[in-house]
Amino acid sequence: MAVAVVPSSSGGRQDYPGRLTLFVFMACLVAATGGLIFGYDIGISGGVTSMDPFLSRFFPSVYRKQAAAADDGNQYCKFDSQLLTLFTSSLYVAALAASLLASSVTRAFGRKWSMFAGGLTFLAGCVLNGAAVNVAMLILGRVLLGVGVGFANQSVPVYLSEMAPARMRGMLNNGFQLMITLGVFVANLINYGTAKIAGGWGWRLSLALAAVPAAFITVGSLFLPDTPNSLLERGHPEEAKRMLRRVRGTDDVGTEYQDLVAAGEASKAVTHPWRDILRRRYRPQLVMAVAIPLFQQLTGINVIMFYAPVLFKTLGFGGGASLMSAVITGLINFVATFVSVVTVDRFGRRVLFLEGGAQMLAGQVAVGALLGAKLGWSGVAAIPPAYAVGVVVVMCAYVAGFAWSWGPLAWLVPSEVMPLEVRPAGQSITVAVNMLMTFAVAQAFLLTLCRLKFMLFFVFAAFVVAMTLFVVFFVPETKGVPIEDMAEVWKAHWYWKRFVTEDSKGDIEMGCAAEAKN
Q: Based on CB atoms within 10 Å of each CB, which residue in 21, 102, 123, 258 is the most buried?
């Protein structure tokens, strides 16, 4: 039996009865497919931008620069083009804006309809990109894809956190990141295959096939149940209680239901969640919503994932070999995410954060040192195949460290620490910061690689040090804590307790509320 803990009025802990039902597992599995659209796009973008037919048609200046670099030119700068990076990063600006709108939709209509809207919009973007005849069509399609990603990324982690039993919340929520990595891996495989299509139209197939994962979440969302939290928030208490019994697999849900009612009452009292989340008592949650996704992008992971084929081409791999190298890193990313799925509720969030940080730090330093030793500041050198393979091995170790730490946990932790009354707004902030930083890093990467050369990887290493120290001092352990009981975590923390105190006006004591109503 999977149980969770909740504070009693005495400050101790008692269990919520319940187990992981097949109903909940299937609902979370379907919802997690929202991660496929994000992952597929990350993987597909870097692949098509390394295909010569795509470059020669839409970005001829980059194609000519690449050809010139083949003759002992500067390997750091051959893909430097702001228009090319705009193709990739325009999606993330649209996702940023959409995630803010999605907060209101998620709160007013429920989590499932945000997922449906995201999938439908993503489908429209797939059609435009697959049929594109100019850069304008490509970028407009990317904007529609971004709207879909914004809605999905805002609603899916919240849905997973609310449906899961507390002791399995980490595992089920990490299913979202697992689907992202599956999307990346499948996209890399598709790129490897479509690049070999005679006639040079394989890039169209790569872009258009994004409609497949979009169809999964669009159709699947129509069959998803609402979460008990969302039903209460929208004024359906009896339906919420019936749903809670069904998702926990027991009729003994009185204590948890009363805690949800208390959270729902607090949520109804908040008419301006965007303003309220700025209040002092929500300071810890707001910092997590901003700092964790910001640091996630400063690891440099998306640089590796959606520019992997381009980066490997820079290292001297041929077009087919660079795509295969991206397939390998994508597979490592997917497999390593399973480590987080099976360990996050056993060892906790902090252990994975810290181990992953140490592994990523070593990886970034090693890549920088290897590139610096061979290419130096000039970027003009022939890289032996064995040497390039060594760089790929190091990158795989780096990707594995990310995949079982900052990859899934950057979605899990912000979604699970938010009180219900500000949860949609908080998750929107998380997604918006994530997309803003993804855009900034993507837009700047090829330019900074050209300017900073191998030192760029040492810059990312410095960011990894900073984020690991942030975890050490400011991120508490949330393993096994019900989301209605997160206030107790902040009250016990050496720093955050000054913001969330026992006598904070407006604090909701969930366990006390439940006991008072019994």
A: 102
